[in-house]
Task: structure prediction
Amino acid sequence: MRIPLGTLRILVLLAVFVGTVLFFASQIDGYLNARLFNRISGSVAVIALIAVGQAFVVLTRNIDLSIGSVVGCSAYFTGGILIAYPDLPPILVPLLAMGIGAVFGAFNGFLVARFRLPSIIVTLATLALFRSILVQSSDGSSITTNRLPTWLTEFATLNAFTAGELQFRWIVVISLIVVLTAHVFLTRFRAGRQFFAIGSNPDAAAFAGINAGRTIFLAFVISGALAGLAGFMFLSRFGNITVVAGLGLELKSVGAVVVGGVNIFGGSGNVLGVLIGAALIDLIDTSLVRWELVSAFWREAVLGLLILLAVAADTVLMRRLLRRKPTGGSQ
Amino acid sequence: MTALRSWEGFLFAVLILIYAVNAWSSPVFLTPGNQINMFQLSVEKIIVALVMTFVIINGEIDLSVASIMGLAACAFGWLVQAEVPGGWAIMIALMIGLACGAFNALFIVGFGIPSLVVTLATMIAFRGFARVLVEDRGINAFPAWFNHLGQKGLIGPVPLAMVVFAVLAVLAYLILQRTAFGRKVYFIGANRAVAEFSGLDVRAVKAKIFIASGVVSALAGILFAARVGAVRGDVAQGFELDIITMVLLGGVSIFGGAGTMSGTILAILIVLALRNGMALQNITGHIQTGVLGILLILSVMVPIIRETGGRLIARVR
Result:
C-alpha cells in the first residue's frame, strides 16, 4: 500500500506532535491533564486562524507580513465600535471584525494583484503603515476590559460543549470549523484548486484560463478576514488592547505554515498540516516555560531552531523520496 | 532630464527636495550638530544596509541581521561582565557574528533551503540566544574607553561609527561595482541557473555574502552597545525592516540582479533626512515608520507610473 506524500506529511507531523507531548509529560509533573488542553486550545485557536489565512497567501507564491498589524487594527477598531455602540447584536460583532480585516487585506491584494508588486515589499510596507494607522487613530489611548460589554469578555471562556474535564470553548470550535471549511474548499472545489494551480505553475494556470489577479486578490482578502476574526478573539480573550496588539504574529503564522509543510514558494500544502504546525509551535512555546531543566529564556531560541529543523528535515526527506521514484512529479 | 531617467538621479532629486524642505521648515536641520546626530542615531542600521545590498542583489534575503546585532551586543556585555578584557570581548562577539553567518549559509547553501525561511527561523533563534545570555537584565558596566569610542568624536566631532560607515561604504562600492566578485554577485542574482551552467562558484559566493552579513551585523551590534552604553535582550529588535526598506528604496530589486551601491547610499540619506525632518516637527516614531512604508510602496510603483505616463504621452502625440 502506498501512502500519498501529503498524507504521509500529516502523519509525520502528528507523530512529532504526540512525541512532543509525551516528552514534556515525562519531564513535567502533572503535565498531561485536561487543563493543558483547555489552556493551549484557546491560543492555538487564534494562531491557527491567521496561519490558515497566511497559507492561502503562501499557496499563491506570496506572503503576508502585515497580518499582525491587521489583527491589532481589527481588534482595536472592533473594540472602539463596541464601546460606542454597546447594544450591537453579538452575532454581528465577529462579522464586523472580519469585514474590517478584509478591507486591510483587500488593500494589500489590490496593490499586489493589480500592479503586480512583490508581496513581500507591499506587506512589509503595510505592516508599518497599518500599525501607524492604529497609533494615529488611537492617540495613545487603549481599549480596556471594563469599557467593553461583559458578554464579549465572557465569550472567550464560554464552552460549546465539554467532554469530561476537557472544555471545548466556542472560539476553539469556531476556529476548527474555519480550518475544516478551508480544507474542504481547497481540496474539493474548483475555486480552491485554483490557489494551488497559480502557485505551482502560473503560466500553465494562465493558459488554463485561471484569472491569477482575482485569485491572488481573494487570497489576501481571506487572509485579512481571518486575521480580523482572530482580532475579535484576541479582543475577547485579553480585553485590553494597546497599540502593540498582535505585534509579531506574522512570524508565528509564517512559522506555523512552514512547519505545517506548506511550500514557501507556493503550490503545495495542506491546512490540516498548518493546524498541527500552529498547535505544535504553541505547545512547545507554553510547555518550555514549565520545564524546570531549562530557563524560560530558552523559548525563542528553541522555537527558531525547531522551525529550522522542521524545514530542513522536510526538504531532505522530500528530496530523497522524489529521487526514489523517477517518474514522480512534484506533488 | 536624462539624469532623472536613472533611479539614482531620481533619488538624488528627491534627496535635494527633502533637504530643501527640512532646511526651510527648521533652522536647526542644517547645523553640523544636527547632521551628525542624524547619522549617529541610525548609524548601525545604515552600516548593515551596505551588506544587505549584496544579499538582495544576489537574489537572497537576510532577516536575521538585527538578531545577530542583538546577540553580538549581548555576548559582548556578558563577556565584559564575566571580566573578559574588552578587546577580547569584541573579538569573540565578532566571531559569534561570523558563526551566525556561517550557520545561515550552511542551511541556505548546504541544504538548499530558501533564505527567507532560514533567516526567519534564525532571526527568532539568534534573538533567543541573546535572551538566554542576558535574561531580563540590562548590562551597562562597560570599560570607559569603550563608551568613549561610541559616544565621543573621533575625528573632530565625527564619532567612530560614522568613520566606520564611511570606510565600509567606499569598500562596499568598490567591491560591488569594481571587482570580479561584484560582477558575480549581480550575475548570480540575475539568473542563478545560467551562472551555475557557466561554471561560477555560486555556492561559495552566496556563503561569503551571508558570512560577511553576519560579521558586519555583529560589528554594528557592538557599535550600538558602545553608543548606548548598555545592552538588553531586545537590542536592535525590528531593525531588519528599516534596513531592508533602505535597500529596496535604493532601487535594488527584491528578485535580485539589479540595483547599485550608490542607490542604497542615496536611499539611506533620504530615509535619515526624512526621519530627522519629521522628528524636528515632533512627529512620532510610529508615524515616521508609516510614512516610510508609503514611500516603500511608491518606490516599487514608480516603474509602473512611469510606464503608464509614457503610454499616455504617446497616445496624446
About this structure: Chain B touches chain A through 44 residues (CB under 8 Å). Strands of chain B lie at 153-155, 158-159. The CA atoms of residues 34 and 143 of chain B lie 28 Å apart.
